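In the design runs reported in the main text, the only information available to the sequence generator was the tokenized backbone. The following block is the verbatim input for one such run; it is reproduced so that readers can re-run the procedure and compare outputs position by position.
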């Protein structure tokens, strides 16, 4: 399993949980190979170029298999050069801010952002990252302009918020829940239909006054194009067995992940989901003029 991000990061953690479960289902080792770089593009390219025999497949997400296709000039097509295996899990964003912000809930934050349109600062994990693109969606929905300040990952963004360098961020749960619970940053809402199991005090965007503002980073498995259908079926069955394990689901939920339901785990469901994401996100990315650094 190629993971196109560094070892020890949140995506790598998901890959290792899934690989361990698939190993039991397949009855053979599943080895992780980390190939970071180019916003996940280097590792994803290796998956696209691999022999389609089922022995190499990749962990992808909303960046590698949606956003990168609109931002980078790639040597592969994010749809045509892969065979979908299965969706795995998704993690919503959490709208967070520096502790000294005058706003104490999402409605107050939106009012403050409008009053400070063009002057407020938001930290992101880099140009074209989920945290960056989600901010463009937020700007469009609330009618305010926010300055995007790129950092090398969400960890530095959290530190920047704590020190007051930036005002807000669209971060992932694993990066912020500890600081939220410690009171060193403010949490305004989770961008999902339901509250986080690990942080039930944070309201959803619907509850907080920003109806339907759902933003998430999802993860899925893809094989190289022309991998035989029967092999895709075996890999898919291994994923289904893995996600049916209560211990696997508990580990994912503990990391802020929301596993997809059993009826969403077919290759066809992943293909349709990816197309839906492209149709929704590419126009926003292109209208915003987001380009690779």
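Verbatim output:
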């Amino acid at each position: 399993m190629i993971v196109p991000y560094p070892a020890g990061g949140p995506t790598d953690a998901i890959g290792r949980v899934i690989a361990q479960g698939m190993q039991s289902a397949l009855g053979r080792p599943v080895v992780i190979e980390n190939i970071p770089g180019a916003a996940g593009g280097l590792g994803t390219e290796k998956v696209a170029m691999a022999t389609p025999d089922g022995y190499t497949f990749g962990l992808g997400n909303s960046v590698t298999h949606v956003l990168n296709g609109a931002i980078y000039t790639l040597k592969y097509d994010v749809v045509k050069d892969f065979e979908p295996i299965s969706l795995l899990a998704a993690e919503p964003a959490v709208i967070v801010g520096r502790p000294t912000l005058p706003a104490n809930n999402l409605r107050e934050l939106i009012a403050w952002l409008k009053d400070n349109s063009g002057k407020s600062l938001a930290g992101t994990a880099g140009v074209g990252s989920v945290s960056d693109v989600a901010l463009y969606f937020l700007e469009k929905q609330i009618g305010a302009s926010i300055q995007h300040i790129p950092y090398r990952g969400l960890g530095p963004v959290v530190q920047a918020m704590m020190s007051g360098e930036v005002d807000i961020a669209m971060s992932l749960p694993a990066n912020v829940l500890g600081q939220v619970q410690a009171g060193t940053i403010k949490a305004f809402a989770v961008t999902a239909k339901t509250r986080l199991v690990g942080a039930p005090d944070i309201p959803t965007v619907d509850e907080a006054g920003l109806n339907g503002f759902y933003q998430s980073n999802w993860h899925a498995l893809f094989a190289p194009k022309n991998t035989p259908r029967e092999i895709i079926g075996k890999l898919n069955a291994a994923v289904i067995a893995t996600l049916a394990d209560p211990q696997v689901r508990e580990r994912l939920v503990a990391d802020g992940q929301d596993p997809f339901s059993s009826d969403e785990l077919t290759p066809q469901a992943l293909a349709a989901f990816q197309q839906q994401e492209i149709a929704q996100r590419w126009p926003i990315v292109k209208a915003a003029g987001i380009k690779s650094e």
